[in-house]
From TrEMBL:
InterPro entries: P-loop_NTPase, VWF_A, vWFA_dom_sf. This is VWFA domain-containing protein. It comes from the Eukaryota. Residues 1081-1310 form the VWFA domain. PROSITE patterns: VWFA (PS50234).
Length: 1310
């Protein structure tokens, strides 16, 4: 709605709180309710400026100082408008707009007020919370409006204790009082639990006051006992009414959200953002983010609900915890969060998208289960034991994958749907709520406070996103130290933290407590200070700034010292004053150091002090502390201009400067010359020797001193006026030589030359010039990064032969660890999402590729004083843990066992299968919605979750020795050539052999491994297949025998007399589908053109009809005849085992075509395969190809022998291309559909090198006319590519058995 048409902007003091928003996912049944962010921001900032900066940064504490009486108001919109008009809140013009839309003449262009909940500020204390209704919400024929009305009214009663109901007689007549019966199935309670509210009932309060007496200004007196609400906590209650989405799964990836939106890919261009720390910092929980920070000290308990579709959904959470999941009318995809706040703790409630949805893969389900188990105190798991026991295996798989006992502490509460167990539920229900609440109450909070919860859950979400299966503690310490290291510079410099450009105090990131910045009174540390004065707080001082010169950096502190503690100008002894200033600086610096060390200690105390990451962080902090200490060490040598002490940094390289005006401010000491008792200021340089003398009268000779060219000469003769000798001498006690100091030497860090001047009296003979700094060697320690000076007290230490200028301290070794193995393993996403371009045109798969990086950690040893290196090898943890450096050959993840481990198999957590490529019996196939081809890379598939996608399965590998490759219990040789690298022989292998060959431990659970051992053939009965348009997942039936078992005889009885034996020799425990098998009219349409005479493909030897075919048909057409014979034999075998409908027999028609058509037999009942074969044998390959004539012949046969009890199946085979007979095929399909008997067309390309577009198109045309689920998935229109005679026989057998689906496989690259 345009701002100009929104009346909320024209009503003073009116703020929209909750808004209705159209939600297409509800199919028009209701709208979703959202918080009106901009309006709520305006409310907060109008009442308290700058209190609302963003949805995650609201100053609830300050808003709590505003207390309001809140009264709800709902009912007829005309009466509400009259109430506002009567109380002079709106004028007649706005009233007319508000009441104009009470008829069908509503004008969309006229200003109006949207339905929702509003806050109206009546006066400084009183506010109305108004539920402005939708038109017709009380009418019986507006169910979705009633749903919206009830949801908003529920929120109104949550936000206010008292409500005014304004409703007229017409509304009362239209209102459906028995509202529970009017609820839709989705919101009806699923169980009748004792103590639970079955449905919300509206209660209308009838006031004794007449409408005319309802003056809002006077209601304060009538409601004097009404409790005022703190605005901050009231907004919190408003915010938690609406659940927020925090994560979703997509493309086999777990995606955390930032304020309900996917993380921006562009942000991942920054290398720092790629780390666990960087990603976790980007996650935000919207409104809840600020709420957690407000309640940062309150413990957190997490309850999650997870289960399958249509199992009560959010009903239990709403009544157990008090959340409002279904009220918000949101489609719950991914993970949603709501809060229930109590005085003891906060309940965080996670509502998960239904598992086993057709829209998600098993891998995505596993991510949801893992997130639930790793975050929760209590898991409400809704499951049907009899149907879905494999869901428990997924829980176990998640625990196995992470293998972190500290993470998995949740209690699992299994909810049995009433429809599954009518006997248990009635007895169980009355005690259910009490039991759950008691369980929750007895459990310790999983998170000691909200601050810790925010940190941990974001790290857990990040680890799932990047598939980092390492221990949580390892990630937490890495993130914590990374956080501290990022803050080191500003913490050392300013004594504060900076978070997202916001200045904050040094804080314990676990508890939220501020590191003490103690107020120190100067009288406590200095004597002689009369006035009470506090020392500047540490957090108010800048002590380190690379861009600022030390002189400027120290100016404020120097002035503070002179003003508050001791003035330099008034000091009689500059040496003592300098020592006091140095002590003051050391006090300031040591206070900063103590706070930084305490800050680091508090934030790492929960981790082991020996942890290499913590030690690395402490080392960096120590280096910064050393820099800080050295920076604030003063020079103390004589100023170049006067005799005061230099106040520059001890390592400065320019001239010495006392940082004064260099003037002496003492009074003249020639007191007898000043009879007026006024003593002028001394004119000499500060710190001079001798008496102070002024310039007002001539007290001394004043002639130029004969040593005026010397470094420390006072220039003027200090002898009496008119002295007899001719030598003019100043008051300086000695005149220094002034030549450059003799110290200069080559050192490990370069050439050094002392910048000072010689202070030896000029009259003393000397060969070596010595400066004022004669008690210390000024050359830096030769250890890299050490800034300390040499420990020697001999200034000329460097002039002695082969001297090394060690500082005398220990040094941290800076070399990398050299132990065998891998020090640290890091899992990170690449800098940008990868777009894999498939071999099929148009296939592009965008995904985030995660990589493992092996990292060498710095050596943990200390270099002893006066040495360049320590003893022994460099090691980050001598004798400690180093990872094995072996990598998985598929994903390149590193073994997590110690280097040199004794286990026979390596172990790792696995990642993207970057070293694999797809293969399949079909050259082209679909995988997870992507069209792929053999040879496509498996980069976007996760190594340790891949097998879960398929359940029972086989793997494919290259034969290790093709000459000796024999079938066994774990492998089966493949006799045909398969892409990729068709020239290399391949074999099927079992799951266990697959992992045995990798040298790595099987990452799947014991239960999964047992399943993987079994045969992957599935019963073809349509009752086991999901039907289109239905969410019901039927029971699947698999062969009960081992994977590569010998086929059972069809004539044998099934093992233990249970189930049946399929024509392929597999044993199934389900009912034989042949019992319900219908009959078919099967029409073979076979191309017998000249190309079918090629002998590159021949009938298979060792078959019953080989001898019949090899004489005249040892070619392609003979291979086809052999395959047709096998097809008929399979159909006969299936009919023979049928115990029902034995009279229902298939009929076969056989069409041969080239440029003409011939039909050897029509609609023959299938009783004798060999006799039918004999009718084919006279016909040899010849001529051209005409698909039009062929499909017309098939249509004629269907018409001639149409039987509504038989299903028409056309198997159309060709080895070459021809124009698609679109018109003829469309006509035949429509004709059959009109008769209620759809046509099933199966097209087969035989011996073709490339795919046949026309045959594919024919199958697609027929499939478009095929009604959904008429035959389930056992028989459908489709195209096959049979590359050779073996494939052809297999194809026909599969059609006869109504198909068996082969899994798509991944092989390692070569």
């Amino acid at each position: 709605m345009s701002r100009n048409l929104d009346l909320s902007n024209n009503i003073p003091g009116l703020y929209r709180l909750l808004d209705l928003c159209k939600d297409d996912r509800s199919n028009g049944r209701f709208d979703k309710i959202i918080i009106s962010t901009e309006s709520l921001k305006k409310l907060c900032n109008d009442l308290l400026p700058d209190s609302f900066r963003s949805i995650s940064n609201i100053n609830y504490s300050k808003l709590n100082h505003i207390k309001l009486k809140l009264i709800g108001c709902y009912g007829n919109h005309v009466l509400i408008a009259k109430l506002l008009l009567k109380n002079n809140i709106i004028d007649e013009q706005i009233y007319n707009c508000l009441t104009y839309l009470d008829s069908s003449e509503a004008d969309q262009c006229k200003p109006t007020l949207r339905p929702g909940i509003y806050l109206l500020k009546v006066n400084i204390d009183l506010c109305l919370v108004i539920h402005w209704p939708e038109l017709g919400c009380y009418e019986e024929n507006a169910p979705y409006k009633k749903k919206n009305m009830v949801n908003l009214h529920r929120y109104l009663t949550k936000l206010t204790e008292h409500q005014i109901c304004l409703i007229n007689e017409n509304d009362l007549e239209c209102f459906v009082w028995n509202f529970k019966e009017d609820l839709d199935e989705e919101t009806k309670p699923k169980n009748n639990l004792n103590g639970f509210v079955d449905a919300y009932k509206l209660v209308f309060e009838l006031s004794c006051l007449s409408f005319l007496d309802l003056i809002l200004e006077n209601m304060n007196n009538k409601l004097s006992d009404l409790k005022k609400s703190q605005l901050g906590e009231w907004i919190i209650q408003l915010s938690i009414l609406i659940p927020i989405q925090i994560a979703l799964t997509r493309n086999n990836t777990f995606h955390p959200l930032c304020n309900g939106s996917l993380l921006d890919d562009a942000e991942f261009a920054d290398s720092e953002v790629l780390s666990i720390y960087g990603i976790s910092q980007k996650i935000s929980f919207g409104w809840y983010e600020g709420i957690f920070k407000y309640f940062r000290d309150r413990p957190i308990k997490v309850v999650s609900r997870i289960g399958e579709q249509s199992y009560g959904k959010s009903y239990m959470l709403n009544h157990l915890i008090g959340t409002r999941f279904d009220d918000s009318a949101i489609h719950y995809s991914g993970v949603w969060m709501s809060l229930a706040i109590t005085k003891k703790c906060i309940f965080v409630v996670l509502n998960f998208e239904e598992l086993k949805s057709f829209e998600r893969s098993p891998q995505e389900d596993l991510f949801l289960i893992m997130f639930s188990t790793m975050t929760s105190n209590l898991i409400l798991f809704e499951n049907r034991f009899t149907v879905d026991s494999d869901m428990f295996q997924r829980f176990q798989a998640s625990v196995t994958l992470l293998n972190d006992k500290k993470v998995f502490q949740a209690k699992l509460c299994i909810i049995i749907p009433k429809q599954d167990n009518d006997k248990i539920v009635p007895e169980f229900s009355p005690r259910f709520k009490t039991m759950l609440l008691q369980t929750l109450d007895e459990q310790d909070a999983k998170y000691e406070n909200a601050q810790t919860f925010l940190q941990i859950i974001k790290v857990q979400m990040t680890k799932l996103m990047i598939c980092d299966w390492g221990p949580l503690d390892e990630s937490l310490v890495q993130i914590r130290v990374s956080t501290l290291k990022r803050l080191f510079d500003i913490a050392i410099s300013l004594g504060i933290e900076e978070n997202q450009n916001k200045i904050e105090h040094l804080t314990n990131h676990d508890t939220g407590d501020i590191i003490s910045d103690q107020v120190i009174n100067l009288t406590e540390i200095y004597d002689g200070i009369m006035d009470v004065c506090d020392l500047i707080l540490d957090s108010e001082l800048n002590l380190l700034d690379e861009s600022t010169d030390f002189v400027l950096l120290s100016t404020d502190l120097r002035f503070y010292f002179e003003n508050k503690i001791q003035s330099r100008r008034n000091s009689s002894n500059d040496t003592i004053w300098f020592e006091n200033l140095s002590k003051f600086f050391k006090l300031i610096v040591q206070r900063r150091i103590n706070r930084e060390q305490e800050w680091f200690h508090q934030n790492t105390s929960k981790f082991s002090s020996d942890n290499s990451i913590v030690k690395d962080g402490r080392l960096i902090l120590d280096q910064l502390i050393t820099r800080l200490s050295l920076l604030w060490t003063l020079c103390g040598l004589s100023c170049q201009t006067c005799s005061l002490k230099c106040l520059k940094n001890s390592h400065h390289k320019d001239v010495h400067d006392c940082l004064t005006d260099h003037n002496c401010y003492a009074s003249c000491e020639f007191v007898d010359s000043h009879t007026n008792k006024l003593f002028p200021r001394c004119i000499l340089r500060a710190g001079h020797d001798g008496k102070h003398t002024c310039n007002s009268k001539r007290h001394i000779c004043g002639e130029l001193c004969k040593f005026s060219n010397k470094y420390n000469c006072q220039k003027k003769c200090a002898k009496e006026i008119g002295h007899n000798d001719v030598e003019h001498i100043c008051q300086s006690k000695r005149h220094n030589c002034g030549a450059p100091c003799s110290l200069q030497a080559n050192t490990k860090k370069g050439f050094y030359k002392c910048p000072n001047k010689c202070i030896i009296p000029y009259e003393n003979d000397h060969e070596q010039h010595c400066c004022e700094n004669d008690s210390a060697c000024p050359i830096q320690c030769p250890i890299p990064d050490c800034q300390r000076r040499c420990q020697s007290t001999d200034h000329f230490h460097a002039l002695q032969p082969q001297q090394i200028h060690f500082c005398g301290n220990e040094h941290q070794c800076q070399e990398n660890c050299q132990e065998l193995g891998v020090c640290r393993v890091l899992t990170e996403p690449r800098k940008q999402k990868v777009a894999y371009q498939g071999l099929m045109q148009g296939t592009s798969i965008t995904f985030t590729e995660y990589i493992q990086l092996s990292e060498r950690i710095k050596c943990c040893k200390k270099i002893p004083p006066n040495a360049f290196q320590h003893e022994g090898n460099h090691s980050h943890d001598e004798g400690g843990f180093h990872y094995c450096d072996t990598k998985c050959q598929f994903c390149k993840y590193i073994c997590i066992l110690p280097y040199g481990h004794t286990q026979s198999l390596h172990d790792t957590k696995h990642g993207n299968m970057i070293q694999t490529e797809f293969t399949s019996e079909d050259n082209e196939f679909e995988f997870e919605g992507h069209k792929l081809r053999a040879g496509d890379h498996g980069t976007f598939v996760l190594c340790n979750l891949y097998c879960c996608e398929f359940g029972r399965h086989r793997h494919m590998d290259y034969c290790q020795d093709a000459s000796t490759c024999k079938p066994s219990a774990n492998k089966h040789h493949i006799n045909v050539s398969i892409e990729p690298h068709p020239e290399k022989p391949k074999e099927y292998i079992s799951h266990s052999l697959f992992w045995e060959r990798t040298g790595f431990k099987d990452p799947y659970t014991t239960q999964e491994q047992e399943i993987f051992k079994k045969c992957d053939h599935e019963c073809a009965d349509e009752m086991h297949r999901p039907t289109r348009g239905s969410n019901i997942i039927p029971n699947r039936s698999f062969c009960e025998l081992p994977l590569f078992h010998a086929p059972l005889k069809l004539s044998d009885a099934p093992p233990n007399g249970i189930g049946y034996i399929s024509p392929g020799g597999h044993h199934f425990k389900c009912d034989n589908p042949a019992k319900r098998e219908g009959s078919f009219h099967i029409i073979f349409v076979i191309n017998r053109s000249g190309s079918m005479n090629c002998n590159d493909k021949k009938p298979l030897p060792y078959t019953p009809v080989y001898d019949l075919l090899k004489t005249n048909h040892d070619n392609r057409i003979g291979a086809v005849y052999s395959a047709v014979y096998t097809f008929m034999e399979v159909r006969l075998a299936m009919k023979a085992r049928s115990q029902f409908q034995p009279t229902n027999k298939d009929t076969i028609s056989f069409v041969l075509f080239d440029h003409e058509v011939i039909v050897p037999f029509e609609n023959h009942v299938l009783t004798d395969s060999k006799s039918m074969l004999n009718q084919m044998l006279p016909h040899r390959a010849r001529g051209g190809t005409n698909f039009n004539l062929a499909i017309q012949a098939a249509g004629r046969l269907i018409n001639s022998y149409f039987d509504p009890t038989r299903i028409n199946v056309v198997i159309f085979l060709s080895d070459s291309e021809c124009r698609t007979p679109r018109d003829q095929l469309e006509q035949i399909c429509k004709y059959n559909n009109d008769r209620g008997n759809p046509l099933y067309l199966i097209t087969v390309l035989f011996a073709g090198e490339n795919d046949s577009l026309s045959l594919k198109e024919m199958a697609e045309i027929a499939d478009q006319h095929n009604p959904a689920n008429s035959m389930g998935n056992t028989l459908r229109c489709q195209f096959f590519n049979a590359m050779n005679e073996i494939h052809l026989v297999d194809t026909f057998t599969r059609v006869a058995e109504s198909l068996r689906n082969h899994n798509i496989l991944l092989m390692k690259k070569i």
